[in-house]
């Protein structure tokens, strides 16, 4: 797994079914330049209420299913975003999973054990694996059409997952934003994070305390 | 014990070399394409779902006005429609598995 002595890179991409099949090129609708991306993402950021509208529960839909789909979507987005900075987020550069010097996130390797300090890449690796295990657990994220969500699915599972996924945004914003700027990914990061906040807000999933180091940014994005 | 020489406020040593590397360029463009694709698809889904729902509701209120369908039947049609939408949404969440290709 170790490439040229660099940081351990694990491909956690959880392929969503809505990613276009490679056999359907959809000529004319495929947007392939950075300019197009910029326009679309800026459109989502700039125009009032586009994302606010998109997070609303569709009429008659089960709230559990809507939240489950979003968990997978945000997981994928964070995986993609963090993937761009893995070269810059190593156990040497980030020996602890922190967001500013005020917040440190610990990982608990076994139930009942004391959570321990780990490096940022280790934390993200553990977190992504933990999410995958949850997604693969049919009793939590049912795949069969007949499968039911467990009782209190949202308060027990969705909230916990979003709380943890948030920490990756926090680490990126607080410790790798300059790299993100240099790579010209700030619009993508802001869109993703704003979407994440609007969704959490719509269903009252996270408390202000969960946003810890990014509380000011959350307020700013909300007021846009 | 945090090493402030590699603190958030500045770029890490060797940044530009790494940023120019083939690997970084590739993950950055994969990331941008992913988001583009995601948001196009997501808006497309949200908008077309709303349109479908609107059509079904229009159809149902039409039937109701003409009294061509009883209340029970109207409810069944609506529930059946929601079930179908629910199945579509669940499928969006799942990664394609080989066993799905029967
Ligand atoms: Zn880092």
Automatic annotation (TrEMBL), chain A:
The keyword Metal-binding applies. InterPro entries: MOB_kinase_act_fam, MOB_kinase_act_sf. Zn(2+) binds at residues 89, 94, 171, 176. Keywords: Metal-binding, Zinc. Pfam families: Mob1_phocein. SUPFAM superfamilies: Mob1/phocein (SSF101152). PANTHER family: MPS ONE BINDER KINASE ACTIVATOR-LIKE MOB. This is Mob1/phocein family protein. It comes from Zygotorulaspora mrakii (Zygosaccharomyces mrakii).
